[in-house]
Amino acid sequence: MKRDILNEIVARNRPALELKKQELPFDRLAAIAAEAPERASFTEAFRGSGIHVIAELKKASPSKGMIRENLEVPVLAHALKDAGAAALSVLTEPFYFKGGLENLRLAAETVSLPLLRKDFIFDPYQILEAKANGASAVLLIAAMLNADEFRRLLDFAHQCGLAVLGEAHTESELELAASADLVGVNARDLKTFSTSLERSAELIAKLKDCGKPVVAESAVRTREDIGMLHDAGATGFLIGETLMRAADPGAKLKELLPCC
User: Fold this and answer.
1) Band of the pLDDT at 188, cuts 50, 70, 90?
2) What topology does CATH give the domain 5-256?
3) CA distances from 81 to 113, 195, 253, 254 (A)
C-alpha cells in the first residue's frame, strides 16, 4: 500500500500544535499577531500577465530528503530578491521539511518582499503564527480540507490581513482552491508525491476565466517549463527544489527568468 504522505504529515503535526497552544495560548498569540508590522501585498505582486516567481526557501522534502542542508535564510533571501523574485515562500513544517517559523521570521527581517508561509494549515492558530512571524499570505491545500474548513480558514486569514493561495492538484479541487485570492496548481500528487507538468498545464488551462492570478507549483526546472505553463495560463511560478539545489540560487533564478 502506498503511503498517504499528506495525511501522515497532518497527523504528525496535530499533537505538536496542541503543545504549542499550551505554551502560548490563542489569545496571547492573537495579541502578538495584531501588533505585527504590515507586509507588502502578496496579491499585488502577481498582477499582470508577466512571469512572477515565488522563490521557495526549503531545506528538505519527504520525497527528496535533504535538499539544502545549510539554509542560510538571510543570504538566500537577499540573493533571490536581487535576482528578480516577486515573493518568497518559506517552508515552516518541521518534521518532513525540516523548516520552522524562525526561517519565516528571518526572511521577514531581511527583505521587504511578500512572504508566503508554506505549511499544512488546518487550524486558525497556524494563521496567527504566520501573521506574527512576518507572512503576507498562507497556503490552504484543498486536498486536506473540506469546503467548510477551507472557507473558515480563508475568512480567518482575511480577518488577520493575510492573503491566501489556494492549492489544487486535481480537477475536483479547482473550484474550492479558486475561492482563494490566488489559485495554485500543484504538479505534485500530494498523496504519492509524483509529479506531472502536463497534468498541471491541463488544470491551469481550466482556470483561464477565473479572474485571479494562477500559480504553477512544483517540478518547474527549466525556462521551457515556465514557457509551457505560461502558455497554459499561469502567471506565477512557485519554484523551490530547482533553486535550493543550485550552488548559486540567485544565478539559477536569473537563468530561469525570460530575458525580456
Assistant:
1) confident
2) TIM Barrel (3.20.20)
3) 7, 27, 10, 11
Q: What cell was used for 68?
A: 539544502
- 94-132 pLDDT, tens digit per residue, is 999 999 999 999 999 999 999 999 999 999 999 999 999
- DSSP 8-state symbol, 195: B
pTM above 0.90, yes or no: yes
Q: Of 38-52, 83-97, 232-246, which gets the smallest average pLDDT?
A: 38-52
Angle CA 32–94–7, to nearest 5: 105
| SS3 of residue 216 by DSSP | strand
For 188, residues 6+ apart whose C-beta sits below 8 A from its C-beta are: 63, 169, 194, 195, 217, 218, 219
Return all residues near 104 (Cβ < 8 A) that are at least 6 apart.
90, 92, 115, 117, 130, 133, 134, 135
Q: Which residues of 185-195 are buried (b: 16+ CB within 10 A; e: fewer)?
A: bbbbbbeebeb
Any idea where the domains of the chain sit in the sequence? 5-256
Positive or negative, the CA dihedral 168, 174, 177, 180 is positive
What is d(CA 231, CA 235) in angstroms, rounded to the nearest whole number?
9
Q: Is the confidence at residue 146, as pLDDT, over 70?
A: yes
